[in-house]
Amino acid sequence: MDPRPAPTADPLSTAEDLGRYVLDSPSSFHAAHAAAARLEEAGFTRLDETVDWSGTGVRGRRYVLRDGALIAWATPADVTPAAGFRILGAHTDSPGFKLKPRPTTTAHAWYQAGVEVYGGPLLNSWLDRELRLAGRLVLRGEDGAPVERLTATGPVARIPQLAIHLDREANKGLQLDRQQHVQPIWGVGQPEDADVLALLAEHAAGGAVDPARILGYDVVLADAQRPAVFGHGGTLLASGRLDNLSSVHAGLSALVREAQAVEGGRHIAVLAAFDHEEIGSGTRSGAAGPFLEDVLVRVADGLGRTAAEHRRALAGSVCLSADAGHLVHPNYQGHHDPVNRPVPGAGPLLKINADQRYATDAVGAGIWAEACGRAGVGYQEFVSNNRVPCGSTIGPITAARLGIRTIDVGIGLLSMHSARELCHVDDVAALGAVAGAFFTA
Questions:
Q1: What are the angstrom distances between the C-alpha of 160 and each of 33, 164, 213, 295, 350?
Q2: Distance between CA atoms of 70 and 58, rounded to whole angstroms?
Q3: Are 267 and 367 a contacting pair, CB within 8 Å?
Q4: For 134-171, what is each residue's pLDDT tens digit?
Q5: Whether residue 5 has pLDDT greater than 50
Q6: Given its phi and psi angles, is residue 232 left (phi above 0), alpha (psi -120 to 50 degrees) or beta?
Q7: What superfamily would CATH give domain 11-94+240-440?
């Protein structure tokens, strides 16, 4: 489709709000909890998966947290037995580094943290920048039962690059050993004083805790630099975790903004923000796991639907698999398709792949075009260069698991999987506008 102007809704304020959400979300667990806080402010009520939902009710505005994932929905007041779901699927994790067991090491007075590579990050982009440690701690409670607490430090760590004086060939092709060269430093001193877990315990949400209470942890590194709007005319946004908090934010903002309209409409609007997409989604909180199916079945039960009515509802449902895509890189133009060449500021991407690495088909493309038209938003097609392997998303997983027609979309980026990615502020606003139109169709 020919590019059209992005929506007239204020792109700057939308990009700045996305930046605030990123700052609140240095880990997938923080992203899920930060989303939950915004939903609570908008009148959504949390449901506990371990209790009976029939008494609480699945109607109205509800959400569920499962580890670093969240599913939220708004239900029409007059929902029919076969009313379908309008689902926006995204993911809360980003490629980077995860803390190993026994993480504290020292070398020549440097305190270091043992980390494992998570997903497929651009390793060099993590060098020589201030980093945070963030995630969840599992603590021994006062009654002996485990309890969870979030934790997040300020800027505390750094992965230092070797000086060029000691590697004169570095600019001819940097080679990083994934074990030896990416272990961050976080202090100096005597070995007996170093303790990464004590540092995390000091920054636990709600106040410092005794590190001896820590039974387990899921902790990652995150970029400590604030997201920034910059460039000519303030059109560019640089930030960590745009892949894929840009999509989570778009779906979250649209669901909050359009909840009242959904309640007067005909579809059940759902935001599904999964964890672990960057490592294949095959977990209890990932898209290949049972989370979405579990919730949709329980919603159907709560609405009094029969199994046949639930299947009818799924057959009439649509999922937007919203994940970031690639803009044409001006310095590497040959890596892109020679005809379909997405540019910044011309709208979000409709992602297409002949091998169904993206789940978009012709019918889905029509649904997407209709939503963009109602939102007044232009869009662009993305397809890979035949010589460049195509990545994938939660789209094919959702389509295969549930049989729901699924469409792969997302904003375009430069530097995807870098510690700090780049997009156009108009595209951020455009995706949120289309998400709202999709939910209220």
A1: 32, 12, 32, 44, 38
A2: 15
A3: no
A4: 999 999 998 889 999 999 999 999 999 999 999 999 99
A5: no
A6: beta
A7: Zn peptidases (3.40.630.10)
